[in-house]
Amino acid sequence: MTRSVKKGPYVYDKLLKKVAAQAPDAGAIKTWERNSQIHPDFVGYTFAVHHGNGFTDVLISEEMVGHRLGEFAPTKKFGRHGGKMQKELDQKKRQAEIDAAKAAKAA
């Protein structure tokens, strides 16, 4: 659900103060405010956004304005799909690449 136009965008006040006090190339600004929207003043700055276990560095660009900081710092780590069958397919693929490389060397 979107925030009402009457209220305006939610930007954490302390983030605005930190951005005003720091140069864009001075390093990452550490924040836990994942729900804060990205303000146009943030463009060019790097934010270290907390993802539950650590921090993810996010370099803000023009296309990110209006989105939330948390959208660019995923909280879940993707393992991979498949199991035993996928491992077998990956091994066959690797073996085929090795055989192709050996054939190319021999020729």
Structure description:
- The chain has 107 residues and is of the alpha+beta class.
- It has a domain at 13-79: Ribosomal protein S19/S15 (30s Ribosomal Protein S19, Chain A).
- Helices cover 30% and strands 12% of the residues.
- It is built from 2 helices and 3 strands.
- It has helices at residues 13-21, 84-106; strands at residues 29-31, 46-50, 55-59.
- Strands 1-2-3 form a 3-stranded mixed β-sheet, with helices on one face.
- The longest helix has 23 residues, at 84-106.
- It is elongated and about 65 Å long.
Which features would summarize this protein structure in a list?
single chain, 107 residues, alpha+beta, 30s Ribosomal Protein S19, Chain A, 2 helices, 12% strand
Fold topology:
Layout: H1 13-21, E1 29-31, E2 46-50, E3 55-59, H2 84-106
Parallel strand pairs: 1-2
Antiparallel strand pairs: 2-3
Unreliable spans are none
Strand order of the largest sheet: 1-2-3
Number of strands: 3
As for the CATH topology of one domain, it is 30s Ribosomal Protein S19, Chain A
In summary, what is this structure?
30% of the residues lie in helices and 12% in strands. It is α+β, with helices and mostly antiparallel strands. It is elongated and about 65 Å long.
